[in-house]
Structures are given as structure tokens and as C-alpha cells.
Amino acid sequence: xxxxxxxxxxxxxxxxxxxxxxxxxxxxxxxxxxxxxxxxxxxxxxxxxxxxxxxxxxxxxxxxxxxxxxxxxxxxxxxxxxxxxxxxxxxxxxxxxxxxxxxxxxxxxxxxxxxxxxxxxxxxxxxxxxxxxxxxxxxxxxxxxxxxxxxxxxxxxxxxxxxxxxxxxxxxxxxxxxxxxxxxxxxxx
Length: 189
Description:
By secondary structure, the protein is mainly α. The chain is built from 9 helices and no strands.
């Protein structure tokens, strides 16, 4: 039964995950943390790890959740084989709808790129994607990422603002900023 639930959750994510990984975060969080497959702390860890590994966050989270959810739902499904099956199912279910939609949309948009309706739809979707990304930023500003003690919150905000400034103003490469933040986190925490 867990596999059907996973298929349904990742089918929704695959079909309605507009705007890329960050825009999908609120939907992913609702679909995988809500049912109790993972904790909020695990979700923020998945987000952090997904940003350091190749591949989109939707696919990385699908692979991970597909692996852990069967074992979390039933002790009888705790074998790694059930996890691998879950990983394969979730990864395919999140990718295939997007793949099909992208193929169809690219064909449709190419044929109707000068249409006022198509231009209007994209004019409406662009601000929504920005809003979804802002929502993802707010979603990640929680105790799991910033800590609960006041000193942890202050240090986390300093690292966050420092990383933002290094990337946005100093134009430092994101990989370098990730390494600096990791060293800073090790020293501070």
C-alpha cells in the first residue's frame, strides 16, 4: 500500500512541480513530511544534501524517500530491496510526467509562440515561480535549519547572510561558498 501512496504523492509533484526544485519544495514537503514518512529535520537534510549532489531536488528527494518510506511504514518492508524498489518507483513517477509534459509543451509552445494566450499564460506563471521560490526560502527558515538556541540562530543567520553576500555581491563561486560555510559550521557548532 505504501508504494501506491508514494506513486500518488510523486505523481502530484511530477505534474504540478512548476518552476524547478526550489519552487517545488513546499509541495514536496507537504507530500512527504505530512504523511510522516520523514521528519522535518530529515527534510531539511535532504534539501541540503540535494544541493550538494548532482541532479534536481525533486529527483534526489524521490530517490531518497522511495528508499526510506517503505521501511518507515512497516517493519516487514525494511529490507534494502524494498527500499530500492521504492527508489526506482518514486524516481520514475516524478520524472515521467514532467518529461511527457515538457515534450508536449515544447511542441505546443513552438507552434504557438506568437499567440497572445501563450504569452499571457507565461506572464502569469513567471511571478508565481518567484513566489514559490520565496515560499521555499521561508519554508527552510525553521528550527531544523537555524537551531533553537538563540546563539545557534544568530550564528545560522550570520552564515546565511554571509553566504548570500559572498555569492550575490562578491560573485564567489557557490561551491567555494558551500565549502566556506561547511568550515564555518564545523568551527562554530
